[in-house]
UniProtKB/TrEMBL annotation:
It comes from the Eukaryota. It holds the Pfam family ThiJ_like. SUPFAM superfamilies: Class I glutamine amidotransferase-like. PANTHER family: SLR1854 PROTEIN (PTHR43068). It comes from Capronia coronata CBS 617.96. This is DJ-1/PfpI domain-containing protein.
Length: 217
C-alpha cells in the first residue's frame, strides 16, 4: 500500500507554490494524497499569487502555476476534501501530515484553530522515532504547528530544532510593498510579530531556530 499524506488547510489563502509543488512531488512518488479544510470546502490558494500584477511580479512561477492548475482540476480530494472540524476526523491513519505556507490573512483560520492544534498535538507524539510517521511544514505552516501544545501547555516544538519564514525576508517584502499592498504581507497586520519571532517565543531556546536546516547525511 502507498504511504498516505494529508494536507491540513484553511479555506483560502495558502501559497500556491507551497501547496501545488509538494502535491506534485508526492503524486510523482506514488503517495496517496488527501486534503482537509474546516468544513470540507475545496481550498482556494491566494489569488494575488496567481493573477494581476502581483502574480506577475511577486507570485508563482510557470511551473507552480501549472502544478496548481493540475491540482485544482484533477485531484478529487482537493475538490472534495475532508472536514477537520468533524469530531470523527483524525490524523492517526496518515503517514505524513503536511502544512503548506501562506501569508494571506485567510490562513488565520487554521493558525488560530483550537481543533487543528488538538489534532496536531496528538499526531506529533506519534512521530517520535522509531516511528515512520512524519510531520512537515513550510513557512507560516510552522506557526500553525507552534500553536499546538502538549498537556503541560508547552508547544510541541518546545524542545525541537526548527525553521520557518525568516524575519528578514518577511519584513523585507512587507516594507518593499506596503505603499502598494498595505499590510498584505503581514498575516496579523502591520506591527505584529514575524513568523520567526512567534515561533522562537515557543521554543525552549531561541538558538533552536535556524534560518535554514540541512538534511542529515
Amino acid at each position: 500500500m502507498p504511504a498516505k499524506v494529508i494536507f491540513l488547510m484553511a479555506d483560502y489563502g495558502h501559497d500556491p507554490t507551497e501547496t501545488a509543488i509538494p502535491w506534485q512531488v508526492f503524486q510523482t512518488a506514488g503517495l496517496e494524497v488527501s486534503f482537509a479544510t474546516e468544513k470540507g470546502q475545496s481550498p482556494v490558494c491566494d489569488n494575488k499569487m496567481l493573477s494581476g500584477w502581483t502574480g506577475t511580479l511577486l507570485g508563482a512561477n510557470k511551473a507552480a502555476r501549472n502544478a496548481y492548475e493540475a491540482l485544482s482540476t484533477t485531484s478529487p480530494s482537493f475538490q472534495k476534501p475532508l472536514a477537520w472540524q468533524d469530531a470523527s476526523f483524525t490524523l492517526e491513519d496518515y503517514d505524513l501530515v503536511f502544512l503548506p505556507g501562506g501569508h494571506e490573512k485567510g490562513v488565520r483560520q487554521i493558525i488560530d484553530s483550537s481543533r487543528v492544534h488538538e489534532l496536531l498535538a496528538r499526531y506529533f507524539s506519534l512521530t517520535k522515532k522509531p516511528s515512520q510517521k512524519a510531520l512537515a511544514a513550510i513557512c507560516h505552516g510552522v506557526q500553525v504547528l507552534a500553536m499546538a501544545s502538549e498537556s503541560d501547555g508547552r508547544s510541541v516544538l518546545h524542545d525541537v530544532k526548527t525553521t520557518a519564514l525568516p524575519a528578514f525576508m518577511e519584513q523585507g517584502i512587507f516594507h518593499a510593498t506596503k505603499l502598494f499592498l498595505g499590510d498584505y504581507y503581514k498575516t496579523y497586520g502591520a506591527g505584529t510579530d514575524s513568523v520567526e519571532g512567534f515561533v522562537k517565543e515557543r521554543l525552549a531556546d531561541k538558538g533552536q531556530f535556524a534560518n535554514s536546516i540541512s538534511p542529515r547525511p
